Amino acid sequence: MKTIKGPGIFLAQFMGDAAPFNSLKTICEWAASIGFKGVQIPSWDARLIDLQKAAESKTYAEEIKGIVQEAGLEITELSTHLQGQLVAVNPAFTEMFDGFAPAQYHGNIQARTAWATDQLKYAAKASRHMGLTAHATFSGALLWAPAMYPWPQRPAGLVEAGFAELAKRWLPILQEFDANGVDLCYEIHPGEDLHDGASYERFLEATGNHNRACLLYDPSHLVLQCLDYLQYIDIYHERIKAFHVKDAEFNPTGRSGVYGGFQSWIDRPGRFRSLGDGQVDFKSIFSKLTQYDFSGWAVMEWECCMKHPEDGAREGAPFIKDHIIRVTEKAFDDFAGAATDESFNKRILGI
């Protein structure tokens, strides 16, 4: 077994216009000062990284890595959540997602998709240049808007066609990640076509069970869907290559449940919470991931509808540190063991 690495922090929710949150150097120094050991870098934020340059120049990629290391940290993974979303967008959402791409691609779905695909391919090369072995992203969604709930009745073959198209768009990207020796980890998330285990299995089948089509495990999104997030690890542990430590709670009422009634986050039955403030059983999660030899990073993704982000970060580092299990190098009952050999074992068995 291996000891999980951490604590790490996903920087996306902490970037801002004021110091220390407005540059890679200063935000890394801040993260280190409150106990983090690694950072997951959102690749769409130019204040942190030029993704294309990191793909095309190993020297530049090593410079970015060096800035992080000077703060006493490591890069856990790069993230392309926003670009991954744009690999597949249903027309119902196209204007709402335009903001994820540069202005010159707004209103041009085909050009925007091509840009997003190139971004993912850059991420594969940049990850290799930085010595990373996993990458975090979203799958995008063609089916979520019109087919998430089967009313009106879905036309025969609609779901199959949707996943076939999704796989067609992702296969060249997966091949690029494979060529660079990096696992592509889809965050299972409502709003994506890969939003639970069943939908992930459909996608996996459509890609021919591609060896790089892996998972980012985030229990918060499973809690809000009422999934068994512990059994999920039992089922998919061989594909889990990245881990977001994020808390959540689900408190249904007589007025509202999983779908949330179009309410704001503060009023929804399902809410994201700061670490330790929700309902997620992290002791069991860390135990299962350790049992299954997960050797990646435990990365805090902070989202909470109440608590200040800086408080959530300050509390999050020790929370993760306290949950990481340092694996043992010997069995607990070794003290009672006895030297054995083949003949001794045969005598015990009477053979």
TrEMBL record:
One of its GO terms (molecular function) is isomerase activity. It comes from the Bacteria. SUPFAM superfamilies: Xylose isomerase-like. This is Sugar phosphate isomerase/epimerase. Pfam families: AP_endonuc_2 (PF01261). Residues 29-322 form the Xylose isomerase-like TIM barrel domain. Gene3D superfamilies: Divalent-metal-dependent TIM barrel enzymes. Keywords: Isomerase.
